[in-house]
Amino acid sequence: MASDTAAHRHTPLQVLRHLDTGPRGLTDPEAAARLAATGENTLPQRRTTSWPRLFLRSLRDPFTAVLLLLGVVSALVASWGTAAVILALVAVSCVLRTSGEHRADRSLHDLRELVGATACVLRRTDADAPVRARETPVAELVPGDVIRLGPGDLVPADVRLLRATGLTVHQAALTGESAPVAKAAVELPGAADEGPFAQPYLCFQGSGVVSGSATAVVLATGARTRFAAAHGGPVRREASAFDRSVHGISWVLIRFMLLTPPLVLMANAALRGRGLATLPFAVAVAVGLTPEMLPVIVTTCLARGAALLARTHGVVVRRLPALHDLGAVDVLCLDKTGTLTQDRPVVERALGPDGAQDPDVLRLAATAAWWTLQLAEAPVPDALDEALLEAAGPVGEEYDGVGAVPFDPVRRLATAVVRGEALGTHTLIVKGAVENVLERCVLDEAERDRLLALAEREAESGLRILAVATAERPARARDYGPADERGLVFRGLVTFHDALNPDAGEALRALAGLGVAVRILTGDHPATAARVCRELGPTPGEVRIEARCTPQDKARAVTALRAAGHTVGFLGDGLNDVPALRAADVGIAPRAAVDAAREAADVVLAGKDLAAIRHAVTAGRRSSANIASYLRITLSSNLGNVIAMLAAGLLLPFLPMLPAQVLAQNLCFDAAQLAFAHDRPGAEALRRPTVLRPRAFLRFITGFGALNAVADLATFAVLALALRGPDAVDDEVLFHSAWFTENLLTQALVMLLLRMRGGTPGPVGRAAVALAAAGVLLPLSPLGAALGMTGLTLPYYALLAAVLGVYALALRGLRSTSGLYSCAT
Prior knowledge:
By secondary structure, the chain is an alpha/beta fold. The chain is about 50% helix and about 15% strand.
């Protein structure tokens, strides 16, 4: 039976019959038989993904697959060095990514906090034995068990109330409601279309008892509870911003790489008659177009950013690409409770019947709270009582308490009885919901309507309202009860607002400064959320509010924002937030969130802290900026080299560069590119969301790649004239050496001029200098001779310097007019 199917349609007696149990609960043999049939009352265990499985998953990336294919092809044509380098880079990238994600999974594996250890169960040894209440492990509960609940208890299963006194439960983990919800053991079920969480006679695993007591029958345990249903299922989500961008760029490169070898082979066969003899060169050209370091750079940038966040801000990134998604977020959706507010009410003011300030109303309300706590059976202060006592200060000495009628969720009232000022009288101080108090006051209809309108105006300004009334009665020894709450004199209203998170306003302004719009999705009244935003102070940008949201509304809002082209982050901590967490590009949950929310999230915070999100967004943008710099520089440089190689292969009587030289050049350039994993881009690169846009990248690398190719072709022309004239360039060794040096020098220039603006070059600058030094010194070394190169004379260096000077000026001019960041914002 579903946890609430029968309960929606039947009375408590019918439910007990359906479960084959009774008010006295089960016998031990019956419970044992049911436990064997239904299994333990535990959540389905979600196993941490093993390291090998994570490693295999990392190989699914399309670009990684292409690198593996190129490695295999290189091995088939006996380019062992190329094959070894490519396969080593793939292995390093996959190991880094797998290790980071495995550590994040293990750090969260044991955070299961919502289900208590034991429950108070009514059991008998046999059918004729007396009933005894005993503490039983929660795992041994079965459908049909009768349990008792009291203040502070965690509801251990889905239950139907049989009896309840003043019961309120906190079910924010299930529904997101910030205030405790009143529950009652009503005889007749309500309308099924209101939903199970709205039914007062149902309580669910994952909620906690705030006040009151109850006896209930267990409807469902283990995997059949609503908590387990939301906790269980596989986490499936659409491709994130990172997945879409990297896959788009990868497929653009894949098309280029698949076209390059056939073009080289056909052109050389048709014009030079070389045919398959140029296959190693064709593979080397394809590898030259490939940014082999992309997986390593991406993984290293993200892993370093994730490690820094964990170490300095307690932020755990469970899925490394989620760090890029954080950098790309331009809309952050969140609830106000716990982020903008502290989930703690504070007294705003006390009003008399005329709407004017009246401190006596606050004193009366605080007195009622004090004596209710002192005299009521099993008292538990709610948040409003605590706020009243904090605002009013000491009140216990002003009156002598006589008795109390505790809060009842049906009456929605609580009453304290104190000795009156006149001898032989008692004063009843009643506080509670405005409608319930007014209907017990001696008022004409016009006055009642006026007071209701006064309360409504206060509520529309985003405040919570408590009404206060009193009555004088002759002193008596007999206990007071709900029947005495009549003939009251209305004394006034006490209004409350949510205590603000002191850091929330600054965090909102910081997010707005980063170009992140905030969308508040809350189940509260719109006026309450609007008031919170007003009190936080002026916030640049737009903070939009969607109130009265159900869990489905939150997920639909996130999906609609993504469909409109936004990259969406969602911060949630309850079971009701799981659909939206899964629908977002990046789901964010605090460490104290319910287990299901943590496991659905990509990023876990130490607390529900907007400042931590700001730090995470900044870290994501820094990593994304470095990845974008690497891609811009590598792809434009590689494309220029490939164009030049194809042209030179057709114009020259020999290969423009030997395969071994292509490999050595790539190794030098790749080693220098590792510096981008340690770069610190300037503030300009962090001011707005960073998204890698494939089409914009294609336009960028086409423009700058063409400029690079022109520089290479200019080098060819200079070499042709310097060697033996334009028609007889046949000094292969000198040509290879000069072009090798020019290539590495131009790539060093590109590293300096096309990185993200702002900040000192730092490690990138040092790497560029080392790359330029390798370009000049390697042909002079014994290794250069082994690769078929020789040193150049001073005139050749002068010619190369002239070409590079013109190239640098053209590069700076094109950079200033091209919108450098358009491909990555």
